Amino acid sequence: QLQVQESGPGLVKPSETLSLTCTVSGGSISSTEHYWGWIRQPPGQGLEWIAIIRYNGQTYYSPSLKSRVAISVDTPKNQISLSLHSVTATDTAVYHCARQIDYHWYFDLWGRGTLVTVSS
Amino acid sequence: QSALTQPASVSGSPGQSITISCTGTTSDVGTYNYVSWYQQYSGKAPKLIIYDVTNRPSGVSDRFSGSKSGNTASLTISGLQAEDEADYYCSSMRSFISVVFGGGTKLTVL
Asked: Which residues in chain A touch residue B57, judged by CB atoms under 8 angstroms apart?
């Protein structure tokens, strides 16, 4: 059964870089039908789309976060990674990894998410 | 980027039907038939319940249905059950190649 699992530090200092990894198990990340991406959810708030990437490195970014975000893929390890630079307290959120269906723009498989707190 | 507009909360009694609206613009909901809906229980990952405006994934109850008119999409839950109490989010493709979510609606089953 295909699963995704997020990992990374739970605490990041302001102005530093948040780095997260998503590991896909039970299947291959190298699918022509899917993108893999990140969505975040600040405590008690709604969902925000961050970025997606395909196995071949094709990427799309949220216009509001594009200047601070980088997403990458490591197909041998079946992983995708997220880097968010110059973080502030407003970046505190649960970060979910998810699979997006190409050409249909919905997420059919989600990880439970990992809470990242930005604080000194 | 501004989120799609959803009511903050809706409520209904068991057996009733409720509808949650999701209002966007001509840059997203009004142009693309790529509206999806997610159900989220507290502390859990979101679950896809509707995709491409009206389609249900395998295993999702047929009590959930979706529709769209103009810039507004809607999720209807019929035969409301206690287990439907959760947060619901809409989502749409937005020009130029991005995804936008709604602010979320908390459903309370009375």
From this structure: 108
